[in-house]
Amino acid sequence: MVNRFKVLDGWRGVSISFVLAGHLLPLGPKSWQMNAAVAAAGMALFFILSGFLITNMLLKDQNIGSFLIRRFMRIIPLAWLCLLITLISNSSKFETFLPHFLFYANWEPMALTHETSHYWSLCVEMQFYILIAILVSVFKSRAFMLLPILCVAVTANRYLNGVEIAINTYYRIDEILAGCVLALLFNYGDSVKRYISLFNPVYMLPLLLLSAHPAGGVINYLRPYIAMLLIGSTLFKTEMVWWNKWLTNALLVYLASISYALYVIHGGLRFTWLGEGESLLKYAKRPILFATTFLLAHLSTFYYEKYWIDLGKKVTSKSAKHHPD
Prior knowledge:
The chain crosses the membrane at residues 37-59, 71-89, 117-136, 202-226, 246-266, 287-304. By secondary structure, the chain is an all-alpha fold.
């Protein structure tokens, strides 16, 4: 029997590996544009997982206050700490970073800098949390039925405007919403799950890379759904096939556990001395950059972030005791 949520951890490990490779390693000549494609594929996987887990969580417990506290305690402490370090080290004006601290830096006019360019995805995440919190607060359980409609609507809007890929929430959130759809299928789509499990990830993964590459053309508009089917094909598999066994290996599970810290920390470090220089010097320093990133990510995850996550759980647990359903 497959441990389904360990499979999801495996995909999270794959997603951060793709992002790190796309940002930090030479993946062929620049003309091949593989770095951007691999990083975008990694982000698509990450967003699918996020949408799936958030929706699955809210289907079980629709306490929006507890949900927001826990998610904010998960994202904000490290994000703000790294922003503060960047703010001080660059002697930047606080106003420049206000859109980052409030997570709207990916809206026009863009406020992202080199050092904070990766924060666009945190903006998408946080804006999604607010959106789904509002929907569930207003529409209760019916809100979940709106998610597939919103997903298709966002993709249709991308297509009508010729936007194959972008970092604005209104053009990128269909990747998270496709993950929400996957969660609905996981809980209510028994008749569909069997067919999704027939997709072979060995073929779906290259298709995802194509859908994240400029040469993919119109296939780019299907990226959220290809990523959803790729993860779903392993999530809904009831027997232990080799790729599910590989996805549950200890290395990927560990990478998944520190993936958020890896993402936030690597994005800033790659614009420091560790990540800069001419090509030969830059890549000669890559082992040091990777080692520093992994060390800081490990310490952040298991010491700094853990404190805030545990605090969020403690606060919401007390709230639940004082306000029982």
